[in-house]
Amino acid sequence: MKDTYPNHIKSRKYGTSWQWDIKLRRSVFNWKVQQWDSFRHCLDSNQVCDHVPDTLYWSYESNGLFSVKSYWQHLEERHMGDSTYFTDIWRGFCPPKIETFVWQLIHGRILVKIVIHRFGVTTGLNMECPLCLLEVETVDHLFLGCNWSWRLWFKCMSLCDVCGCSSYSILQWWRGWRGMCPRRKSERAWSSLFFAVVWTIWETRNIKVFDNRDTSLNQAEDLVKFRVAWWFKNLGNGSTDTITTIVLNIKDCCVEARGSKSLKFKDWRLSPTESLKFNVDGSVSGVMGQAGIGGILRNQNGKVFCVFSTKVGVQDVITAEVMAIARAIELCMTKQEVQDKVIVF
C-alpha cells in the first residue's frame, strides 16, 4: 500500500512495531467514525516483517487463495442468527419494491431526517418527526416510537385480535412479528400486514413532507387493509373472492388455512330492492403510473343517478381504488336524492 500510494499512506517503525500514518482527503463523517476506528484497529493489529516479501493471503482457505465459497461460509458463520429473519423478507408476500424497502428499513438505510443530517444536509432541514412533531425523526421513532405510527400498528393488529407492546427497534419488531401470528397457517397474510403497515407509514410521511397533506388514521387503516387484500388475492394465494370481500373479512385472512381458496362471507344478506349500487374502479398505467378513477350509481332497474370519471395523477393501483371509493362517498353525501337510500359498493 505504501509503495502504490506513497502520498496518502506512510508507515513508520518504532522499535519492533509499525505505525500507519494515513492521510485522508476529507474529514470522516460522524456516522463513519466507528467504521474508521475499526479499520485502524485492523491495521495496528498486524505486524509488518522486513524480511518477508509482500503477498496476498486469504486466511479462510488453507492454500491462501480467495474463493467465493469460503467467503460466503464466513459470512454465514458471522450472521447465522440474523440470516433467517432477512431471508423471510424475500418470500413474495408483497411486491418486490416493498420487499426491498423493508430490507433497507431493518438495516436502518431509510433516508429519514437524522440520516440526511448525517450526510451533511442541514440547510432548511427541520429534524422533527412530521407525523407527531414531538421528537427527532429516526428510523425507529418514525415506524414505532411515533404516537401516530403506533396507533396505526395497534388498530391493524386489533383487526386480528392481536395485542402487542412496542419494541425499541424496528429490527426487533420484525424478529418478533412472526411470533405474534394468530395461526401458523396464516403466515402469508400476517407477514403481508407488516409490509403494508410500514409502507403506509412511509407513504403517509412523504405525503406530509412533500405535499403538506395530513392522512387520518382511518384512511391509513383502509389503505393497509386494501393492500393486504390485494396481495393476498394476487400474490400466490389464489383466492376466488373479490378484493371488497377480503377487506370486509380481513380477520379471516389471518386465521384461514393456507390453500383455502375462498373466505366465508359472514352474515351476507340480499340488499333491499330500494337500494342503489355504486360501481367504482381505479385504473393505473403499469405498477406506478398515471391513474384514473371512475364510477356509476344505479338502481335495480338500471336508472343512472350519478357518473364520475377523472384523472388522479401518478398513483399505485391500491391507492387509485381507495380514491375511487372515497370520491363515490363524497358524491353520495352531496346528492339529496340519494340521502335516504341504502347504497351498496
UniProtKB/TrEMBL annotation:
Q: Which residues form the Reverse transcriptase zinc-binding domain?
A: 66-153
What is this protein identified as? Reverse transcriptase zinc-binding domain-containing protein
Give the CDD domains listed for this entry: RNase_H_like (cd06222)
Gene Ontology molecular functions = nucleic acid binding; RNA-DNA hybrid ribonuclease activity
- Species assigned in the record: Dipteronia sinensis
Domain of life of the organism encoding this protein: Eukaryota
Q: Where is the RNase H type-1 domain positioned along the sequence? A: 279-334
